[in-house]
Amino acid sequence: MSAPSNPWPRCARRLALAWALWAPWSPPFAHELAAHRLTLVVHAERSVQAQWHLDWADVLRDLSAPDEAPAGYLFRVASEPASALEPPLARLRALVESQWQLHTPEGEALRLVRWQWPSASELHEALQQQAAQQALGEHVHGGHGPVVRAEAQAPAPVRQLRMTLPAALERALVVSYRPQQRWVEAGAPQTLSFVP
Question: What is the pTM of this model?
Answer without folding.
Answer: 0.75
